[in-house]
């Protein structure tokens, strides 16, 4: 990326660039002290550019496709390798000098195979970019639709404003502590990392001991809403409907809302609106870099208890957009999984190796 684009038309380089390094098209440059963060780039913008002397510049041999090598050098596997060399560095600030960098070995298939892999990855990335652009548009549409639906609720004279605790049951999750890490009643539980914006990630679920009495109190049911109790200020109150099987529990970093007088999907729409508009942030208490909603403050928040037909109208409105958004989100996830699988195939030896570069 050009300096004036990255720094928004501010000149951060010296007027005297006589000591800067040339980077021709197809060459690479990396920040010696930031390589472990993936700070490496392929110069493909202009015929000749220049970079600060703090960067290391190199090119690849003719039997290596630069686009293929760039993807390898930016991969998670290579970033781990950079970290190994960075930790072994005698430089106090940590650095990966070119003498160490050039010793890192990578699998190198024949040139034609490299080009094929790079072309496939280019197309996958292009499709991901298109889908992500569409997703950003859908997020805006969803926010607008949700805002309109909440105005409809507020404007209806039949809507009754009541405390959240009157609309449903509020329960803070089970405290996690070392003594619960083993026992006769180990059960899976959800935490903040699992409850994302409108959906639950079940790919990394931990377990701890829940006694039979605790199981009865903390077991989740379909239709329960889980909210982030402790989070960064802009994410506190992030929520999702529980849609998993019986036998799942939840940690104290989450609040469970179990509906009594409202439809679960309507309540979820209200909570999403509160997240978008900063209502949860305003109700939370900031402590260093973490904000806490607390069950008590959440229970006292004023909830719009709409009549059933308005609740159904809100649900229909947001779910029409939500379904399309969910489909695009799923497509992005599938493309990313495919991309990771392709890279794993390469590093796992699925692509025949030639020589090391």
From TrEMBL:
Keywords: DNA-binding, Restriction system
Domain called Type I restriction modification DNA specificity: residue spans: 94-137
Protein's GO biological process: DNA restriction-modification system
Pfam family of the protein (one): Methylase_S
Keyword Ribosomal protein part of the UniProt annotation: no
InterPro entries, A to Z: Restrct_endonuc_typeI_TRD, Restrct_endonuc_typeI_TRD_sf, Type-I_RS_S_subunit
GO molecular function, one term: DNA binding
Family (UniProt): Belongs to the type-I restriction system S methylase family.
Protein name: Type I restriction modification DNA specificity domain-containing protein
Organism expressing this protein natively: Streptomyces asoensis
């Amino acid at each position: 990326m050009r300096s004036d684009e990255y720094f928004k038309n501010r000149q951060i380089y010296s007027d005297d660039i006589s000591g800067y390094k040339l980077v021709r098209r197809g060459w690479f440059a990396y920040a010696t002290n930031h390589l472990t963060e993936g700070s490496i780039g392929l110069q493909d913008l202009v015929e000749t550019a220049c970079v600060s002397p703090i960067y290391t510049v190199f090119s690849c041999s003719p039997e290596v496709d630069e686009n293929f090598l760039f993807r390898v050098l930016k991969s998670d596997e290579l970033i781990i390798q950079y970290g190994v060399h960075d930790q072994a560095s005698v430089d106090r600030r940590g650095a990966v000098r070119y003498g160490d960098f050039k010793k890192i070995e990578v699998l190198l298939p024949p040139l034609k195979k490299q080009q094929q892999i790079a072309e496939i990855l280019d197309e996958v990335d292009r499709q991901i970019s298109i889908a992500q652009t569409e997703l950003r548009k859908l997020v805006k549409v969803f926010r607008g639709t949700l805002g309109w639906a909440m105005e409809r609720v507020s404007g209806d004279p039949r809507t009754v404003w009541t405390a959240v605790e009157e609309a449903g049951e509020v329960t803070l999750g089970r405290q996690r502590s070392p003594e619960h890490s083993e026992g006769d009643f180990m059960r899976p539980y959800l935490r903040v990392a699992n409850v994302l914006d409108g959906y639950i990630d079940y790919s990394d679920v931990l377990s701890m001991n829940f006694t039979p009495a605790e199981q009865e109190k903390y077991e989740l049911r379909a239709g329960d809403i889980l909210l982030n109790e402790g989070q960064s200020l802009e994410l506190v109150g992030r929520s999702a409907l529980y849609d998993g099987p019986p036998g799942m529990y939840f940690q104290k970093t989450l609040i469970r809302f179990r509906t009594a007088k409202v439809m679960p999907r309507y309540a979820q729409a209200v909570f999403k609106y509160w997240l978008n508009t900063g209502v949860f942030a305003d109700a939370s208490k900031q402590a260093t870099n973490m904000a806490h909603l607390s069950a008590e403050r959440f229970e006292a928040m004023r909830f719009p208890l709409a009549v059933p037909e308005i609740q159904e109208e809100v649900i229909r409105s947001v779910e029409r957009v939500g379904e399309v958004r969910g489909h695009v989100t799923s497509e992005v996830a599938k493309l990313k999984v495919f991309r990771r699988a392709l890279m794993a195939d390469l590093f796992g030896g699925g692509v025949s190796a030639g020589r090391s570069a």
